UniProtKB/TrEMBL annotation:
Pfam families: rve
Organism whose genome encodes this protein: Aequorivita vladivostokensis
Transmembrane segments: none
Location of the Integrase catalytic domain: 118-280
Name this polypeptide is given: Integrase catalytic domain-containing protein
Length: 300
């Protein structure tokens, strides 16, 4: 006599939906694999952002390709955007800023030498600017000098005042870090720090041509402004509760990570240190994106 064995609930459900039990378990295996894949990707994202805490998703996507290769994981950019959005890891842009430039002074203002200039090598053009960092009970002011070709930060200085000495210290560091003996233009806004006698004297002593924006237009020094924003936005330096000295140390670590680790879409995804060893036109990989407009819209 044939004995009827009770069918499992899974078997009944599979039959109702016209699926085999193998298909059901295959779905579970694929779901488990997807969860493991997401976990690996997120762990690698957190590892990268340990040194580059607010690195944009497009650059993360580029860096993750090599890091995920040992796991045999391929990763699309849109998938990464969606994954980071789901886990609230997209970088939201911040609004700024405080006034750090006073161009209403009697000192000599120089003309703009960079209009139409094609930058094709490192140390052809340096751009300079000052930005603020909010401390607990005061403001700190960060002076930066950036190479326009490689985006490498050549010199910096962090002070509690807006005197010219901070800019002079940053300039001195940049000059000490030069790698090439070729003609160089220094471009800045018309702030009193850059027009001061002592600052101009350092430039002239080192045979560096002087260029300044016209009519105080910030778009004429947009690259310097952009680097300011990267350092503050991606390294959480808009404000600091560490105190002045500890903040200064954090700035140094951030600039080191920026120069050594952060790829630039405007430099063919090279880091600034890598790009500083190149010459000729570097391929620009940045585009305008709309899907995540409120997030990372200036991720260059």
């Amino acid at each position: 006599m044939k004995q009827d064995f009770p069918q499992s609930g899974i078997a009944v459900l599979c039959r109702l939906f016209g699926k085999t039990r193998h298909a059901y378990y295959d779905f579970l295996w694929r779901k488990e694999e997807a969860v493991v894949k997401e976990d690996i990707i997120l762990q690698e994202v957190l590892a990268v952002r340990k040194d580059l805490p607010r690195l944009g998703t497009r650059k993360l996507h580029y860096i993750l390709q090599d890091r995920l290769m040992p796991h045999k994981i391929t990763l699309g950019r849109d998938y990464l955007f969606d994954l980071l959005s789901e886990h609230k890891l997209l970088v939201r842009q911040r609004k700024r800023k405080a006034l750090t430039t006073d161009s209403r002074h009697w000192m000599r203002k120089y003309g703009n030498l960079v209009k139409g200039l094609v930058v094709s090598r490192p140390e052809q053009l340096w751009v300079s600017d000052i930005t603020y960092i909010r401390l607990t009970n005061q403001w700190g002011y960060l002076s930066l000098i950036t190479d326009a070709y490689s985006r490498k930060i050549m010199g910096y200085s962090f002070r509690q005042d807006l005197l010219a000495e901070g800019c002079i210290d940053a300039l001195g560091m940049a000059i000490n870090n030069r790698m090439y003996d070729a003609s160089l233009i220094h471009h800045s806004d018309r702030g009193s720090q850059y027009c001061s006698h002592n600052y101009v004297a350092v430039l002239l002593k080192n045979n560096i041509a002087i260029s300044m924006t016209e009519n105080g237009d910030p778009y004429e020094n947009a690259l310097a402004e952009r680097v300011n924003g990267i350092i503050k936005t991606e390294f959480n330096l808009y404000s600091s509760f560490l105190g002045f000295e500890q903040t200064n140390q954090q700035i140094g670590k951030s600039i080191k990570a920026y120069n050594e680790l952060r790829p630039h879409t405007s430099c063919d995804y090279l880091t600034p240190n890598q790009a500083h060893l190149q010459s000729g036109n570097l391929y620009k990989r940045w585009k305008n994106y709309n899907k995540y407009f409120n997030y990372e819209k200036t991720d260059v």
